[in-house]
Structure to design on (390 residues):
DNA sequence: CCACATTTTATACAACCGTATACATCCGAT
DNA sequence: ATCGGATGTATACGGTTGTATAAAATGTGG
């Protein structure tokens, strides 16, 4: 394995353990068993290397989400949503650094335009995928805008759930509680519609 | 105005313009028209100053959210939710740096335990406040856990909406689209319940 | 086996960072 | 008026950072 690949995995590990801003060139060198100059040679600069590694990490993140989402095959929508949320919560437990890196990426995006585009694109791809989670069949008559909005809605819930999990796992809602909350909201809306 | 206060507002401005990790002691000094040594004198270290400033910024963020939420007085729940989301979106436009700093705070919390507690506490306070947004009256028979879950649910939507706005304002949903998405989800759940 | 490009290594350097030190200034109490 | 604590300032220092440089090693095609 060449130093180029070694540097990438080393940088990715540093990303998980120390975060983007806290990792130095020497950290990466130590983690990848290479040497300082190889960073410049293969990537031009530390930032370029770290950005490449972050993109990789984000792709891994997306793959993890896909994996979680693939489990939602229940015929009933509420069941499907609940299993999606519990799947996410489980993933937080097993792949925490991955999710932390994802959140950090959002903050970094503000000052790294290239990264921001990458993340925006990932989100753009995630929206339709999530929308089909709700709109299964007979959804041909659903306007594209609405479809997109449903994707955004579920995506927002996912991101928000992530943040709460990272800040305070005790207080953050479980997948079941998320479903319960949605049920209560639906019930309230239905009641006021009946009246 | 003493240098202590000057340093705090300078640090806060740097937080908004450059973000936590990118601001140096000399940035703060330049922004506050003070001098290097005053940081050590008044706060002991740069990190202590910056953390204090970040806490201030986060309080300001909370106040902004309160301001937005106070506008939701419509009797109908869906109307109330929609006005809340449009209020948030409007706020992103006018107070962008505030929201960016909020997101960055999440990422920083992972490595700054004191900050993490602060944020967790803010979230804990926000949950009941948001819950009353849905559960208006006759909600005495709603279990405390469910109430909390509703707060978490709305909070997650808020955070997730923020992130999408910051990554790509064009693709992010409007307040109206969020409401439309919720309506479609409710409709789908109702339909499958009828069948 | 040899020229030649590619890759790896060791080291140096200049810039920047956070903080400590020593000194000046201010200001209220006596 | 002066003393003393509190506050402000100028500057220097040690350490770390990212990157550039030049040499060594490795591989590769003829």
């Amino acid at each position: 394995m060449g130093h180029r690949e070694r540097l990438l995995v080393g940088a990715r590990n540093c990303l998980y353990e120390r975060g983007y801003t806290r990792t130095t060139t020497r950290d990466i060198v130590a983690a990848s068993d290479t040497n300082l100059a190889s960073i410049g040679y293969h990537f031009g600069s530390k930032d370029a290397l770290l950005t490449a590694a972050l993109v990789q990490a984000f792709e891994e993140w997306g793959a993890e989400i896909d994996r979680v989402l693939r489990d939602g095959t229940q015929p009933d929508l509420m069941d499907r949503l609940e299993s999606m949320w519990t799947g996410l919560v489980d993933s937080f437990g097993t792949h925490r650094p991955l999710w932390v890196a994802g959140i950090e990426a959002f903050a970094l995006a503000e000052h790294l335009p290239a990264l921001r585009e990458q993340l925006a694109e990932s989100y753009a791809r995630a929206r339709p995928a999530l929308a089909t989670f709700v709109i299964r069949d007979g959804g041909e008559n659903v306007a594209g805008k609405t479809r997109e909005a449903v994707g955004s809605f579920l995506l927002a819930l996912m991101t928000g759930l992530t943040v709460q999990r990272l800040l305070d796992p005790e207080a953050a809602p479980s997948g079941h509680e998320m479903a319960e909350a949605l049920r209560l909201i639906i019930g309230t809306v239905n009641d006021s519609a009946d009246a």
Q: What stands out?
A: The CA atoms of residues 19 and 49 of chain B lie 14 Å apart. The domain at 54-190 of chain B is CATH 1.10.357.10 (Tetracycline Repressor; domain 2). Residues 2-4, 34-38, 41-42 of chain B lie near DNA strand D (CB under 10 Å from a C1').
